[in-house]
Amino acid sequence: MILHEHGHGAGQRASHRGRLMTVLIITTVVLIVEVIGATVSGSLALLADAGHMLTDVAGLTLAWFASVLAQRPATLARTWGYRRAEVLAAVGQAAVLLAVGGFVLVEGIRRLIEPPEVASLAMVIFGVIGLVGNSIGIAVLAGARSENLNMRAAFLEVVNDALGSLAVLIAAAVIATTGWTRADALASLLIGALIIPRTLKLLRESIDVLLESTPRGLELSAVREHLLQVAQVLAVHDLHASQVATGLPVLTAHVVVDDSCFQDGHLPALLDQLQQCLAGHFDVEHSTLQFEASSHAAHEPSAHP
User: Fold this and answer.
1) How many separate domains does the chain show?
2) Which residue in 109, 139, 148, 212 is deepest, having the highest Cβ count within 10 Å?
3) What is the Cα–Cα distance from 238 to 257, expressed in whole angstroms?
């Protein structure tokens, strides 16, 4: 039997702490401004956007902290280091966003029924400030949004904030030109509708990682077929794949080979061939393969495919 495991790669991804800290400062400033604006104007849409900003401040702080943890080296106690911290941060941000989205929807419906007075000019002023701040945040995070779930969550929050600020401006324009104050409630409902679907998708992907589900796009049936096409491979069982963090899939398998492989010294070359197949066809760099002689197959439990 030979066990082999790849190293943990050439290193972790470049740190995005600077980007996150820049956006965190911008978001905090916009939050303070929008709270003042919501108080002055009485706008629910502006208050909803400020509430969203508050969760973003907490979420971005969590994202920054996770990016710091992710850079800590692996140890014997934590062999993957803190790479999964980014997933936990994404789950935390998604949970908070769902709570905010639910509150905004409920309050928006209430205000549709009983619309309060709203100062449209104040909405415009503070909405513009929010939109400018969020646009800067989007520009800062845009280049790193696909790096991992943590950065994607942070980018998503800032984009949602920008859309919320835009909705505030549209509502303010409608109120100023028509006097229809329910536009404020409709804008807040739009903000809630923008938050929830994207957040549910992010939450689902994060939970998939935590549940060690097979990474999206990796078909284990196809993996098995590729491995079986390699000469002297007779069967593959106990095939599992999961994801430690974004861009870090891992795979384990028991590979049944001809008995002669254990006698003619062919196993090292066969191991290289199989792992090249996994890396080249399926982009799985981290794999652990256990070789078994065909005569040993009867001793293996059959609980796993």
Assistant:
1) 2
2) 148
3) 14
